[in-house]
Amino acid sequence: QVQLVESGGGSVQAGGSLRLSCAASARTLSSYSMAWRRQAPGKERELVAAIRWSTLATYYTGSVKGRFTISRDNAKNMVYLQMNSLKPEDTAVYYCNAEDTTGRIHWGQGTQVTVSS
Fold first, then answer.
1. Alpha carbon distances (Å) from 25 to 20, 82, 98
2. Do residues 97 and 35 touch, judged by C-beta distance below 8 A?
3. Model confidence over 15-68: pLDDT tens digits?
């Protein structure tokens, strides 16, 4: 069982930056793919970025490439999402995910990010 706790959300003006953090608790995260998803009002949940725990392989959805960076700290069981050049369309609840080898996705409680123009 993996427990995930996000932090770092808030309100920022367009062009600003935020850093989201996700504290993950598990015996080992070496077999998990970690990711950030978001859900804006009236929209479906969207995969924003993902990173393999055991490698540095990353994925970004097109709208955030070059602006967001996902990273992890193995020693601390932490995952981060650095968000730069934020846009109003980035406004959403951001969720930390851990996907195990069976495809099951574990979710955190979410953190609100609001970007004003």
1. 17, 21, 10
2. yes
3. 999 999 999 987 767 778 999 999 999 999 999 999 987 777 999 999 999 999
